[in-house]
Amino acid sequence: MPARRALAPAKLNLSLHVQSVDSSGLHPVRGLTLSISRNDILVMEPAESDHLEIHGADLPTGDENLVWKAVSALRRGQTDRPPARFELWKRIPVAAGLAGGSSDAAAALLLYGNLTGRDRAHLTRPAVEIGADVSFCLRGGLRWIGGYGEQIGDRLDRDGDFVLVVAVPPFMLETARVYSAWDRLGEPKGRTVAGTAIPPGLRRHGRLVNDLYPAATSIEPDLDDWRVELERRWDRPVLMSGSGPSLYAFFTDRAEAEEGLELVPEEARDAFVALSQDHGALLVEDRS
Description:
Elements: E1 4-18, E2 29-46, E3 51-55, H1 66-75, E4 84-89, H2 100-115, H3 124-130, H4 134-139, E5 142-146, E6 151-152, E7 163-168, H5 175-184, E8 192-193, E9 208-209, H6 213-219, H7 222-234, E10 239-240, E11 247-251, H8 254-262, E12 270-274, E13 276-277, E14 282-284
Parallel strand pairs: 3-4
Antiparallel strand pairs: 1-2, 1-14, 2-4, 2-5, 2-13, 5-6, 7-11, 7-12, 8-9, 10-11
Helix pairs in contact: 1-2, 1-3, 5-6
């Protein structure tokens, strides 16, 4: 079998409503979630022993990496457990609220599932076992999510009437720490964006809000300074994705978005223009 390649798109939270922690110790959520055109690339080929090499980020390559968690989920209870070599090119910023690790896991499910003869229909349960965002990252598009992220709604129609600019401030935020801060602060509600500030194709889905924003800014007050400055430079509302710190705004077309990208402060850890995508992790052509 030749080497196979998969794209692992970033995930953007357009809206995120958080509920009180329940008996499981987790927070149920409801959110409007979108795949965007910022992709990690994961390549897999059969090998004599397991190996993972990562380019573009300093990340662990052992069992704790979500790529191996995906492989382990597929190997569990199976007699056919062929070894594989993976190479991962990271383009999605790490610890930025863009679900890069979860998307890499979804890509690994596709690749290793392909190696062992399993199609997407057989990947749903392993995706849930690995982590909250993996189920969405496997399916992608524009969808409502619920539960702990594992409940995935039908894919929604999306009008191509907006382009995004994403700016990542020069610090990281740990998801668990942000949720703990949200509890400690008394479960605050986030800032709301509504009306004409939302692209026409998204208005039918209601107001956009991220309940984790107050918690994220309590941990990293500079985050709010970044939001205010970007709103001044871009002259439009700025939202946060997930547990942060990635910030984004809607632009009418590619040209306007490119102008907005030029206005991002040079101290940003990363910044890019992105389009919405109607797919999650995706197998592409064999690598030559």
